[in-house]
Design goal:
Length: 111
């Protein structure tokens, strides 16, 4: 079930669910939600090795949400690489905002 707006997503529907990439790779389990100082909502994700990451919650990177089952995302490549390296970006919100703006610019040039 895709969500038209992040605001439609209730934490209780995804708490305890896996956060997945499009290829099925699990990034971790969704533990909570908070407002990041960077200006966006972030999910608190607990990885299998016990690390905690904050993952920005933007509708542009949500691919699919199945309440009580999973949330599939397509994060920007550089953000994903940081998480895989065990690094926590200072402002994950800014990385997604930058990628969304670049995508819009590419789309407007193509049109």
């Amino acid at each position: 079930m895709p969500y038209a707006h992040v605001e439609d997503l209730c934490l209780y529907e995804i708490a305890g669910c896996p956060l997945l990439l499009e290829d099925g790779t699990a990034l971790g389990t969704i533990e909570g939600l908070k407002r990041h100082k960077g200006g966006c909502e972030v999910l608190l994700i607990k990885t299998d090795d016990g690390r905690e990451n904050y993952f920005p919650l933007y509708e542009q990177i949500i691919v699919e949400c199945r309440p009580y089952e999973y949330l599939i995302v397509a994060p920007p490549k550089d953000l994903l690489e940081m998480y895989r390296e065990g690094k926590q970006p200072k402002n994950p919100c800014e990385i997604v905002k930058r990628e969304v703006a670049a995508h819009k610019k590419r789309m407007s040039k193509a049109a």
